[in-house]
Amino acid sequence: MADVGGWSTIESDEGVFTSLIETLGVKDVQFEELISIDADTIRSLGPVYGVIFLFKWTKETAGARPEAPLDGTYDPEANVFFAAQTIQNACGTQAILSIILNNEQPPSLPPIALGTELSTFKEFTSGFPPDILGEALSNSEAIRSAHNSFARASPFADETARPDEPSGDAYHFIAYTNVNGTLYELDGLQPHPISHGVCGDFAVQVADVLRRRVERYPEGETGFNLMAVVKDPRGRAKEIGDAETLEREERKRGAWEWENTLRRWNFVGFIGEMMKGVVAGKEQGGGKEYEAWVEKAKGETQKKLERRS
């Protein structure tokens, strides 16, 4: 994919996010998709560093108000890594880093090994206000290159789309994590980190906050995705000799690697050449046979449309 200095859109996918942080040097951490918002499901994943919530952004439900958020309270004095969102398409990676960089030394969980790249970035930006930190993040060539390496390859993608150009529904990522005993909501579109109070049981508390957020939407809205940031279960499986878990996780990693390879591959040329071969084969049988083949295809398409109707 051509790298023209912009940030490309990447998918909200556990394999993409896991491979992204590993590309940046983070070790022993992975992402797990959550299919329900309940404490037991979150606890079942083992040590959980935080969750990333993807939702359809609307002015009415986002809660971007200068005086107070719709839920929780602004904490401008919070001692957390918090970057303002200054560019389009990077909110997923920004939410990821909001959890990873705030859990280098968590009080009750195994520490996250950041690796050289992110450790250097965190040290360099220590003490930066959110707006300057957002600019530093957007200008990090290493983070941007890692992010863009997981964008779908397509000759039709516009990697430099303007944020003020309409492009259908807008989706946004935010992070929830426990920092120094407080549950924080870290949203780069907000002016400050949002505190949801003392964090006793992270799973219970974050599930309650997320349910309240989902309830702001009309009944039947399904434009949400939730992922947990957890410790890689393979290490524990090796320690206790859990061959079944280890095999399952290795299969999962293999599937992620294959899917990420497909994302980077541009199939347009292959499909074009394949269609040329099909058409050439039909033409060899004479024009009438080719026309009959086209008409048959049109008829099958029309039947499918009628059945859907």
What does this structure look like?
It catalyses: Thiol-dependent hydrolysis of ester, thioester, amide, peptide and isopeptide bonds formed by the C-terminal Gly of ubiquitin (a 76-residue protein attached to proteins as an intracellular targeting signal). One of its GO terms (biological process) is protein deubiquitination. Its EC number is 3.4.19.12. This protein is of the alpha+beta class and 309 residues long. It has 12 helices and 7 strands. Helix 1 crosses helix 10, helix 9 (233-240) packs antiparallel against helix 10 and helix 11 crosses helix 12 (287-308). It starts with 13 loop residues before the first helix and ends with a helix.
